[in-house]
Amino acid sequence: MSNFMMSNQGYDSPLQHKAVNGYHTSDDPKTKEIISKFPFLKAEDIADSVLYVLATPPHVQVHELMIKPVGEPV
After folding, report:
1. In which domain of life is the source organism classified (predicted)?
2. What 3-state DSSP class applies to 10?
């Protein structure tokens, strides 16, 4: 049985943009300014991490994987 959980913090997404700046779009200059001040992971960062877990040998069990951007408090 596998469990997968992903927090909605720390990665760059349109949902995160709305959370930071209300209902403004990602193209809004104020949103871009606010987002540029925070460390965010990109979708590729998450995908690379998932691929790493999937590529582990069958005798390896990965129970948890926590990925945070550098600069974000743990």
Report:
1. Eukaryota
2. coil
From residue 11, how far is each of 20, 57, 61, 63, 69 by CA, in Å? 12, 28, 25, 21, 8
Is residue 32 in some structural domain? Answer: yes
Helix (H, G, I), strand (E, B) or coil at 45: helix
Q: Let me know if residue 54 belongs to a domain.
A: yes
Query: Which residues, 6 or more positions from 64, have their beta carbon under 8 angstroms from its beta carbon?
Result: none
> Which pLDDT value is given to residue 1?
43
Task: Provide the token pair at 20.
Answer: 């930071």
Q: In this structure, which amino acid lies at residue 10?
A: G
**In this predicted model, what pLDDT tens digit does every residue of 19-57 receive, in sequence order?**
555 555 556 777 677 777 777 788 888 899 989 999 999
**Residue 13: inside a domain:** yes
35 is a domain residue:
yes
Q: Give yes or no for residue 3 having a pLDDT over 90.
A: no
pTM listed for this prediction: 0.56
